[in-house]
Design goal:
alpha/beta, Rossmann fold, five-stranded parallel beta sheet, about 55% helix
Length: about 170
């Protein structure tokens, strides 16, 4: 069974996912990193040169491949779940765990990186709040939600393991 970590940027999907994969003996994959590897360019460059719709198609294509795999922990891009086809692929091939934080915390956690093209705007908090509100209906369709605001990545991974063991 795959475990897909979804949620807004800065929720700890990658840091918690690495720990979770180690604890469960699964392979970890970070979708944005995999897309960058395959495209041989950064996500911000893909957005700038090819546009967001092209990037979203790359996400869907990758998810189609990952849905055929097993025993993965996948850190999904923040917007990957905001597409009905992607959501179906995720839910049909594994457990979907939404990690959540407030827009303020997301901005604090991501403020020192330029790798967040959707927040590279004059008012990142306003952009994050609007984007989070728009994506929330999709995030809420996960099998379960974990608020990561005051938790370490290790604590998040442990909580996922506990929640998954209750789901069996």
């Amino acid at each position: 069974m795959n475990i897909y970590l979804v949620g807004f940027m800065g929720t700890g999907k990658t840091s918690s996912g690495v720990i979770l994969a180690q604890k469960l003996g699964k392979t970890f994959l970070e979708m944005d990193t995999e897309i960058e590897r395959r495209q041989k360019k950064k996500i911000s460059v893909i957005f700038a040169q090819d546009g967001e719709p092209y990037f979203r198609r790359l996400e869907t294509d990758l998810l189609k491949e990952l849905a055929l795999e097993d025993e993965l922990v996948v850190s999904c891009g923040g917007g990957a779940v905001c597409n009905e086809e992607n959501l179906r692929l995720l839910k049909s091939s594994g457990m979907v765990v939404n990690l959540s934080v407030s827009a303020e915390i997301a901005c604090q956690r991501t403020k020192n990186t330029c790798a967040r093209p959707l927040l590279n705007v004059p008012d990142p908090l306003k952009a994050a709040s609007e984007l989070l509100a728009k994506r929330q209906p999709f995030y809420s369709q996960a099998h379960f939600n974990i608020d990561t605001e005051s938790k370490s990545p290790e604590a998040v991974a442990d909580e996922i393991i506990v929640r998954l063991s209750l789901k069996k």
